[in-house]
Amino acid sequence: MSKPDPTQARKLQPVHIPKPWGQEIWYTGMEERGESAVYIDGESLPLSQYLASDPAAICGERDVLLLKILDPRPEPVLGDLYFEVHEEKEEVYVVTAVDEQAWPTGSGAIRYGLNQARRAAFEDDRDFRAAYLSAVRAYEGIRRTLDGETPERPLPTVEEEAEARERMEAFTELKTLKVGDVVHVPTWAPHALQHGVRVVEFQTPTYERLIVSFAQAVVTQPHWDSERAIASMSLDIPKSTPPEPVVPGVERIASYETFNAWRADLDQCAPLILPQHLPYAVGIAVTGECQAGSVNLAPEEACFIPGAALADTRIEGHGIFLIAAPDL
To answer: Quick one: which of 21, 30, 36, 66 is 20 to 30 A from 150 by CA?
Structure first.
């Protein structure tokens, strides 16, 4: 394969990563568990090789934002993600589907922040954190026995597991979600997407997290990070700013120190030409069909637009298109 032309947008080839709660679909992921790719003249090229072919022209020698879909199972508990926090990583979710059998009303949920009424019942936040950690540790003990890690202990009953999980989750809050909602996840904000709620996610290009709790066996690490996470997590409900109109049909849905993200209704806006000073951009079609330069995209198909291609890449077509780029 010849050296890729950095002045052309490229369609991304995703990789599917199994999870205990469902799957992640990575469009720009690069690590041991899997690597995304780009299509070059009908052939597949690993994303890392593509970026290395001309890093200055393709990505401005910047790390690439992680674009992925979170696709939880529809079953309660089994499809609920890790309750976790991030030290450095910032995320934004856009809800694209809510399983009707899991959520007959059409509104799903995310476990998002801590219960403020429960917090106010304690003399101070130190006592609240200590009580929450105690509840998490009690549930972790039950969880590890059920998962076969402590066979010397008597097996808890279904009722005991459910009651311990309920006591633990009483310290947290649920936020209702429907299709089209945007969720901001800043650093140290505890969160866990719930079963049957599918989202597109843009995030800082880091892979760190601290697991507070999980209602299944954790397969990616041998321990929970509860003590450290609870000691440092934000106790306030995360603030979520409404989308900011930019031009007709286009709104900014996230503005972090590390990246910005936008949502475009291509039926309501003029063809998009992105600012040429950006190092690169990544985008994904949510509904309808569109084009980014010469790349045709159906729903849940994504593209990478190199910095050298921004000036000549028009984004147009029909439906909803999401796009993100690193901040400068």
So the answer is: 21
